[in-house]
Amino acid sequence: MWNESDDRKYAAFYMEKLRRGEDAFFGLIEGPGGSSVVPILIEEFRRDADPKVRKALIRVISEFRLRSSVPFFAEALRDASPLVWKAALDAFFAVPCAESLAALESVGESVQDKKQRSWFSEAIDQLREQLAKDENA
To answer: Which architecture, in CATH terms, is 4-136?
Structure first.
């Protein structure tokens, strides 16, 4: 039976691939443990200093489309690297819900950089539109 220890070994194998610059996307999203690997990937995100690896982890985590990942995406929005916070902006569209919009708005209010604020405003507007369409469908 698959368990957390298996998830950790599986994640460790693919994290090494990511750190070497290899593609690990499908290996991580199609793993035998399914979304049970997400908390481990979030831990790895917090430990890893490489923005390319953190960006890749956001992409993988967003592919699971878990509402429980929204606070993590909000955390990633505060990353200093544009690679990372832009990936986090995109991740909210994988989980279009009121919580995603609220998180985007909350973090967006604290953004000081004019260009970055523009990215946030555009994402907020697009997510509002998507939520309105979903409501009317």
So the answer is: Alpha Horseshoe (1.25)
